[in-house]
Amino acid sequence: MRTLYIECNMGAAGDMLTGALSELLPDPEAFVAMMNAAGVPGLRVERVAKSTCGILGTHMRVEIGGAEELCPDLPEGAPESEAREFRQEIEHEHEHGHDHDHEHEHVHEHEHDHGHTHDHEHAHGHDHGGHHHASLAEVCAQIDGLKLPEEVRAEAKAVYGLLAEAEAHAHGCDAESLHFHEVGMLDAIADVCAVCLAMRILAPERVVVSPVHTGFGQVRCAHGVLPVPTPATAYLLRNMPASAGSVRGELLTPTGAALLKHFATEFGWMPAMRVERTGVGVGTKEFPAANCVRAFLGEDGAGDEDVYELCCNLDDMTGEAVAFAAEELMNVGALDVWLTPIQMKKGRPGVELSCLCKPGDRARMEEAMLRHTASIGVRGQRLERRTLPREKGSVETPYGAVGVKISRGADFTRAKAEYEDAARAARAAGVPLSDVLRAAEREIH
User: Fold this and answer.
1) Which residues have a Cβ under 8 Å from the Cβ of 162 and sit 6 or more positions away?
2) How far is it, in rounded angstroms, from Cα 203 to Cα 6?
3) Which of 2, 101, 166, 426 has its CA at a distance of 20 to 30 angstroms from the CA of residue 207?
4) Is 111 in the same domain as 182?
5) Contact at 8 Å (CB) between 47 and 60?
6) Is 0.85 surpassed by the pTM of this model?
7) Model confidence over 196-246: pLDDT tens digits?
8) DSSP secondary structure string, 292-311?
9) Is 128 helix (H, G, I), strand (E, B) or coil?
10) Each residue of 51-66: pLDDT tens digit?
11) Are residues 266 and 366 in the same domain?
12) Which domain holds residue 426?
């Protein structure tokens, strides 16, 4: 299975993710050319070689109208006079050109003491004269107008939907009333679309994201001091494994969090895989720790991996309800699900519902098990398992093409026809399922 692993020891931002993924692409310069020709007004994307702690990687420079958008830093602990001057300078850039007697909130993504070039988005509940703000609908319309594959545009709009939901939750409004500042919007659109385009080209079947370091402390913006992770980022972190790490400052931006949340199929440490290519996306500043996102692309390989076995006892559900719960566990990503007849206290017959899942999926599986059963508790234990390398193929039979699963050991190979394909072919041809399975087995061997 084509697998992409993203390591986020220094958090993640759109430009760093783009830089790391670009190093995995077969033709990075063609990728840059596609972005520059996409139609984002005033956009110029450039890959720049950059080192961090002696590690060479790629910094993705994104310019809008000839300038790379960087937010000036205010050092932690700066005197109030400097903080006030900083706020006045930033606020001067947002003069509205008319008076109003109501307050509004600005939602920012910043570059602070963490070294990432960040997307500066300002969300408002209304528009002001003197500069333009775009609603979520207008942002999506702008994405729809870009010269990018339809699938890429759809992914980018989905990421922006997550961002809008998070910002709306943080500020107590609905997503439709948010407005993004025009310059920051273009910069962020470029980052989001670049990551979506790179993912479309790489086409991984499995995307594993490491536990994410968010940074810690507080960061200053033009309108006050925010905790790290910022409220929007904290909302996006739901069901994502994360920790503060050892770096003071904002390491994980809302855009970075939304991109990881959208594309990750699971969270956890690097799986057993045959690595083909590695990529390093570098931030703009230097720290004692390497300021980068790393990406690894390859195929799942044979090896040991940790899984969780989760189970609960049920004695007050119908057979249909238990079967539905088992099906729902498979739908949300369980590796396997099974039922075991048991005898409960006072001689009552019952059933034990069990499933296997990856460590990063544990919280989601537990929630699904509690949601779809009458149980009020779930047990779990961490197990080790060894798996064979697996691949998918297809064989031609007299009844049409049938997919097959192939597993390989040191000196043996196992292959099995995909049930759904075989059943579909049997129904279409009006023959027993066993005829299609036998025909597929002849072609496999």
Assistant:
1) 236, 258, 261, 262
2) 14
3) 166
4) yes
5) yes
6) no
7) 999 999 999 999 999 999 999 887 765 578 899 988 899 999 989 999 999
8) EEEEEEEEE-SEEEEEEEEE
9) coil
10) 999 899 999 998 888 7
11) no
12) 390-444
